[in-house]
Amino acid sequence: MAFSVSGGTAFTILLICRLLESSLLNAEVKEGEILPPTIQRLMKGYNKYLRPFFDNGPVTVGMSLDIASIDTISEINMDYTATIFLRQRWTDERLVFEGNKSLSLDGRLVELLWVPDTFIVDSKKSFLHDITVENRLIRIFPNGTVLYALRITTTVACNMDLTKYPMDKQTCTLQLESWGYNINDVMFYWTRGNESVSGLDTLQLAQYTVEDHYTSVSEAIYETGHYPKLVFHFELKRSILYFILETYVPSSLLVVLSWVSFWISLSSVPARICIGVTTVLTMTTLMMGARTSLPNANCFIKAIDVYLGICFSFIFGALIEYAVAHFCTLTYTDSHMIMYGHHMHDFDDEMNGIVTTISTHSRAKRRKEPAATPPPAPTSTELTVSPSSPTGSEPKPEASPPETTNWCLTVLATLRKVLRSINCCHVENPHHIDNYSRVTFPLSFVMVNLLYWTYYLYF
């Protein structure tokens, strides 16, 4: 009883399959349309759900591509969008017919034939063009070879290394695999090797040029088995001229503009501050604009970021240079006042020494002369004679140099010596700082540019 039920179920399934095939065929042949006798003979007993050579090894499928266009290459999404003509060839022994001419069929008849389940591996979104009809081609040759062509627009992921952006080279791929048939059922191959892909030689891209392209054959290994895979590699080199005119030249000119402040007097505070702040803000805006066309969150330190950072450092350094020079001008004035005070103090000491020497000589001379009359006895109210008075008739003043002033002068002099010893590049005249900057800033910028371009272009 169980056997009869199983047999009835199998018979029902076969009957449903026959009815589906008949309905599909009748759907295509309607309103009086009749398939040619050759097609009718080919379709008689044909089962599209079984691959060719089902019991005699894998079927080999040859592939070729024609790149119609590469519309966009996005660094933000790390993908590219291309329109391609995908051509597949295989041999189906069930479609052999007599004659020496191929049969070109309507693309809608592909629903009656077995076709490979090819898919694009890294495709994010794809669609088949259907204006005015679905862009599909079916051609059957007398030996049973089937040519199946499609026009597809696909957006494919491309992992990009942007460390040398915009002097970078990107290698993108287009991978074709079989979805359900493993290598025991289907084998893929390129029909003409590297020449299987055409259209790149005449392709015009906005920011790139195609430097090289080649094909390869490999296998995709998954948990469910090994599957055939074809890979098309193409290398894109970015055109740097746009970025030179858009970013590199303006940033370099901003650096040169910041050097104009070196030729402006230190006393012109508004002019120099205006140039410094304006160049810093403009450079910041330029840096933000250069990053809008790049991924917002990535781990790449790009070459253009390095150059913009260098330019920003030089511009900011020019602003700091004026702050240092202006501060040194103020301290230079204060130190001159201190030195003037030191000179005046030394002059007073020298004058006091001269007066003291003259008084000593006068006193010794009076001792050598014979005393005519004894000197009057000193009284209790006698005043102390100042050694600086030559006559000794004036009292000696009690005033002495203020110790606080001397202590302050000593501390300032000590600090000045310490700063001199620490600052090995001390400039005696602050006005010479601008003179040095006029030479050091341009030379440093030229040297850094040589190192930058040498590294990113040749390494």
Describe the protein's architecture and organization.
The chain has 459 residues and is an alpha+beta fold. The strands form two sheets. Strands 1, 2, 3, 5, 6, 7, 9 and 10 form an eight-stranded mixed sheet that branches. Strands 4-8-12-11 form a four-stranded antiparallel sheet, with no helix packed on it. Helix 5 (303-368) packs antiparallel against helix 7 (431-458). It is built from seven helices and twelve strands. It folds into two domains: 38-238, Acetylcholine Binding Protein, Chain: A, CATH 2.70.170.10; 240-335 and 418-458, Neurotransmitter-gated ion-channel transmembrane domain (Methane Monooxygenase Hydroxylase, Chain G, domain 1). The model is unreliable at 1-6, 27-32 and 370-397 (pLDDT under 50). Residues 39-239 form the Neurotransmitter-gated ion-channel ligand-binding domain. One of its GO terms (cellular component) is chloride channel complex. Pfam families: Neur_chan_LBD, Neur_chan_memb.
